[in-house]
Amino acid sequence: MDLHEADLREMASVIKSQVVLEVSSQVQSLLDSLDTTTLDIAVTGEVGAGKSTFVNAVLGINDEDFHAAKTGVVETTTLPTPYHHPHLPNVRLWDLPGIGTPCFQAKKYLQLVGFEKYDFFIIVASERFRENHAELARAVGAMGKRFYFVRSKIDQDLQASQQRRPSFFQEVQVLKEIEADCTRQLKNESLENPKVFLISSFELHRFDFHRLQDTLAEELEGHKKHTLLLSFPSVTAAAVQKKKSSLRQHIWKKALLACIVSALPSHPFHLNIPMLMNALKKYQQHFGLDATSLETLATMVSKPCFELKNQVRSTLGRGLSENGVQAILSQSAAYGQLAAKMVTNKVPFLSNVIAGGISFVAAYFLLHTALDSFAQDAQRVLERAYGLEEEFQGSSRYPSPGFICD
Ligand SMILES: Nc1nc2c(ncn2[C@@H]2O[C@H](COP(=O)(O)OP(=O)(O)OP(=O)(O)O)[C@@H](O)[C@H]2O)c(=O)[nH]1
Ligand SMILES: [Mg+2]
Asked: Which residues pair with 81 in a beta bridge?
């Protein structure tokens, strides 16, 4: 059993009080500040470019779902409409009205849609990038916000190209050409180093979605970075690992709260099991392993849901129950004496605020074990959902985004 040094250091630096209520409210507010972090993403572009479909795909919602952004050839978005993330209520993707009338005025448009509330803009185009896209990007930049270009419906381009030139068709080549063409168009409009991502909202696991996700996360800081990593669907092994690392950093806080609260007079138990169960349920949702997420993914990839469910093999993943949780806790407690000593040595005030280091260690290892298991389950589910083994072999420009490389 391993305790992370970095966690112990952070705990020692945070826990400076011997008063239980002070420590618990301090740690609780650290966790609250994560939960209350907002992320407002503006999705804009010309009418019919695929904005609403992109919003639904990122949120992991089927187009036919009641809460989905309306999509289709005649469903035009006329007002900025927020779509909330199903598990992170403070994350919103804003489906903005289409740009592109001949008398389009970027500054006016940005005022109308209330530009200041967005963290960044995603500008979607399904064909060429035009003057309006560039003008909008410049205006967004001038207002101190970041922008990213998404060239959508790439699956359609590939299909069309294959039909037109079946004997010369090379997917990698076509993708390179589209990307070069997009970049050239934007440079012609005097935009330096535009960030262009080729995406199919019907097949997020292919093309540049993972690169978009990485770029957005890299360019955000602190809690916003964490929130972005959690809110985007993990469609690659690398994305699953990043999500796991981001969640891992906060385990000690959850473990500590679970034993502090239970050490209070009104809680007779050494650990607050409902609190831990709640944390585990959230992990499941973040990895798309809850029943609704699995069903949605199955519909998206046109596979029977049981096939995906069968890939969830961890004990906790197959059935999250108090008994299962108790079993892991007592296992950790049995082996964790040494770790408990270490944690109380390195975090001097800890023994004053919890009933015993062993409860903390048990909760800490439960959450670590669960996170590892769920991440492995998530990888298996995605491999099965997207049939990655067959799909990406032999492609160098767009290799398998992680399941094989990792
Ligand atoms: N093949 C393919 N079709 C797509 C993709 N994204 C969107 N579409 C289709 O393009 C059409 C328009 O998509 P929407 O998402 O409604 O476009 P929009 O930009 O929201 O349109 P407005 O709200 O009218 O401005 C729909 O029929 C979608 O199914 C994609 O990645 N691939
Ligand atoms: Mg729309």
From this structure: 95
User: Distance between CA 12 and CA 252 in Å, rounded?
Assistant: 11
Residue whose CB lies within 8 A of the most ligand 1 atoms, among 43, 46, 52, 83, for a mutation test: 52
Report whether pLDDT(70) > 70.
Answer: yes
- DSSP string spanning 230-272? HHS---SHHHHHHHHHHHHTTHHHHHHHHHHHHHSTT--SSS-
Q: Is 296 in the pocket of ligand 1 (CB under 6 A)?
A: no
Probe target for ligand 1 pocket from 47, 71, 95, with the most ligand atoms within 8 Å of CB: 71
Name the burial class of residue 176, with classes exposed (0-12), middle (13-18) and buried (19+) by CB atoms within 10 angstroms of its CB: middle
Check if 101 has its Cβ closer than 6 Å to any atom of ligand 1.
no
Cα of 73 vs centre of ligand 1, distance in Å, is: 7
**What are the pLDDT digits (tens) for 241-297?**
999 999 999 999 999 888 876 655 555 456 788 899 999 999 999 999 999 999 999
Q: Report residue 67's pLDDT band, with 50, 70 and 90 as the boundaries.
A: confident
Pairing type for strands 91-95 and 81-84 reads antiparallel
Q: Which of 64-73, 86-95, 158-167, 168-177 has the lowest mean pLDDT?
A: 64-73
Nearest ligand 1 atom to alpha carbon 55: 15
CA distance 279 to 125: 39
Report the nearest-CA residue for atom 9 of ligand 1. Answer: 50
Cα–ligand 2 centroid distance for 201 (angstroms): 13
pLDDT at 219: 95
| Residue 319 φ then ψ, to 5° | -165, 105
122-134 tens-digit pLDDT: 999 999 898 889 9
Q: How far is the CA of 77 from the centre of ligand 1 (A)?
A: 11
> Does an H or E element contain 122, and which?
strand 120-125
**Nearest atom in ligand 1 to 124's CA:** 19
Q: 216 CA to middle of ligand 2, Å?
A: 22
Give the chain's mean pLDDT: 86
Given a cut of 90, whether residue 19 has pLDDT beyond it is no
Which is more confidently placed, 68 or 336?
68
* Short-list 137, 148, 130, 132, CA closest to 188: 130
CA distance 363 to 192: 50
48 alpha carbon to ligand 2 midpoint, in Å? 7
Q: Token pair for residue 332?
A: 């950790």
